[in-house]
Amino acid sequence: MLNLYHNKAIYSGTGRRKTSVARVNLVPGSGKLIINGLPGESYLQFSPNYLRVSCSPLNLLGLDKEYDIYVKTRGGGLTGQADAIRLGLARALCTINSDNRIMLKSEGLLRRDARSKERKKYGLRKARKAPQYSKR
Predict the structure, then answer these.
(1) What are φ and ψ of residue 65, in 5° steps?
(2) Bias category Basic residues: which stretches (predicted)?
(3) How far is the CA of 24 from the CAs of 40, 102, 126, 127, 130, in angstroms?
(4) Quick check: 2 pLDDT over 80?
(5) What is the chain's mean pLDDT, rounded?
(6) For 103-115, what is the mean pLDDT?
């Protein structure tokens, strides 16, 4: 989706993972990452793994210094949010140029990871863990 903000194009995409939802906006700029109003490094607790995962679509296409990333994310933990940002960023990059889609799809960055926590069943301690069996 394309919007205009101060005569700059804004490209947006939505990503989801587990219970996390991330709305990603790409604006032409210098390559900064802002998540919920905070610098991306401090929001993701300076974890190199979370930062690498979040910005992997831009790094793959070599556009890491050309766009500023503004993210509003909610729900879940940092792992789910980082993966949701990755999917939203990949979807936003597809709206910029349709040639990006081929490269992102071959790396599996456009696939939504549908795994989520399984519900607890009655009579069990967790989703599948049963109480210890007693023969007598």
Answers:
(1) -105, 10
(2) 117-136
(3) 13, 20, 34, 33, 41
(4) no
(5) 92
(6) 94
Residues counted in the chain: 136
What number does CATH give the domain 11-107?
Answer: 3.30.230.10
- The DSSP annotation for the chain comes to -EEEETTEEEEEEEEEETTEEEEEEEEESS--EEETTEEHHHHTTT-HHHHHHHTHHHHHHT-TTTEEEEEEEESS-HHHHHHHHHHHHHHHHHHH-THHHHHHHHTTTT------PPPPPTTSSSSSPPPPP---
Write down the domain spans for the chain.
11-107
